[in-house]
Amino acid sequence: MTTPRWDAAAAGPIWPAGPPAGVDPIRAAVRGCLAAEVGRDLTAAESGGGRLDIGAIGTTAAHAVASPMLARAIADAGLVLGAARHVADPAALAADPGWRLAVVLSPWKQAVAVQLTALSPAAVTTGVVDTVLRGPRGLLGVNTNSWAAQVVLELLAAGREPGRIVLLGAGASARSVALGLRRAWPGTELVISARADAAAQELAAAAGALAVPAAELTGLLDGQAPAILINSTTWGETRESETAPFAFSFDDLLAPGGAFFDLNNRLSDLQARALRAGCTVSSGTLMQRATHACRAALARETLTLEDA
């Protein structure tokens, strides 16, 4: 069976004419996520409240449930943060009745789906779940990362359609980014490069992209840096991760006027090099804030439905 290409069913950009002056990007991401993933209007979903207990799985789950960005998003949604816990794996998460909202992190974003009752549209498309809601119909897996990434990418593009985007990595985060990118710009040239060539090939086939081995990347570009370079790998996540070199010259992918989107929240060497090259740089912080805001709004919607 042929996998439908994501660029053939794109929903369109969040801001067709570019981000307007004074825009709230977090609110825009939440609006798009609620409408597409659960069929709810943001205004209608802004009522409600209650206590929200949180669960989490993944390598950095303990850090995630203690995040001040998550706590702020929950408070902004009019909810009260209750207990927060992290468990070992997807099976333990599904068996634990003590949470209403669950944060799913690497390495479980693709494996958790088999434990769930249903998946939202973006989760079905990507095969990636980063958020689980416990509601009256069971456990719903949602992909919020694609909406959070899309709003960052559209801000970086500033109303222009990028000629070429290079995406480093082909894991769960890369899949979410690629879907957000394709919703915004179905026709933009997308190049995917990753250490796992088979994963890059599979993602490229789904996203209407070109998969290029890392050692061949700079040769393919032939001195023409992409309009937007995206790092979805763990390179830069910690200081130790920066000791292993890429299989290509990273600086050859940078040029004045370009943009670099690093999904890592930490101020990495890659971000510093991109700034020195004259690029507009976004760390993963705005994406993380938008993701948490989407999670909180979805949780508020679930609690509102239960109270109805």
UniProtKB/TrEMBL annotation:
One of its GO terms (molecular function) is shikimate 3-dehydrogenase (NADP+) activity. This is Shikimate dehydrogenase. One of its GO terms (biological process) is shikimate metabolic process. Signal peptide: none annotated. InterPro entries: Aminoacid_DH-like_N_sf (IPR046346), NAD(P)-bd_dom_sf (IPR036291), Shikimate_DH_fam (IPR022893). GO terms for cellular component: cytosol.
